[in-house]
Amino acid sequence: MESEPEKKRFLTGWHEHHAHLFLGGARRRMEELFETEFPDFRYWKIPLVKPASEEAIGRVNAWIRECFLPAVKFHDWRKLSVQAALEQANADGVSRLEASLNVDFSRLGTERLLREIAEVHAQTAPDLELKLDLGFVRSQSVEFQAECFQTFLKTAERFPELGELLGGVDLYDVEDAALPENFREIFQIARAAGLKLKAHVGETGSPEVIRHTAEILNLDEIQHGIRAGESKETLAFLADRKTVLNLAPASNRILCLFREEEIQERVRAIFDSKVPFTLSSDDYLLFETSIVEQFQEIASIFSEDEQTQIRKNCQNL
Known about the structure:
15 helices
């Protein structure tokens, strides 16, 4: 049994591995900073008839396109978004934040962008460890994104203090928009540069897709991966590789991918198979669920000792 001080300590010191930098702020705080209203994504409906791809991640993309981007079209939007994200991470008791931004933001100038982020970090949350994951979008040109990536790497080499911000690479967007093979060379370059390798997969993709993507890209961590809980073979594969799953149960629930009990069943299977996993907020601006709240969504299916192990994983992995 944990003492009360121990339980209180476990409410802080989280390592968040799965977040998106410009979408990490609390909605109310973003409304204050941007002096506008952002529709609550949890209840937002796409206003026009859209194709099936607008379900799940497509719905997220539609909200960003129709609600977020029109509201942030002024020069300080990046700084304000980062400020809100770091403030929210502090409020959630996060001590290490790994957050992604699209690699094609290099078009803004990588030195300028990284210095902006470093400045806001120093002003807003200097005690928080911040690492950036450069994100690759499956539906965009691989060649163009590879060029953008090289620009970041050259900037990191030229300015080592800015290079310290770079922690990994990530792959996201609709899961069947491109084969993982298309990004294998990029991920090999990232590995040689000492970056952590991540990919969004297994949110909608099958357990077989999870395994294939992890093999092809030699992943260290998987963003989501909840559907691994449907396959003993995939779970055994991930456990053997010690691949970390960065789960976001609230995101899966709000996107109507699974009911709460289905999420709990899959998380229970993941835990029992000894696959390491963490909990993350994903996009706090959209899902408005902290790591502690994510933990509470699954806590009822675990014993106190098991809950302690999960919290330790979320603080140490």
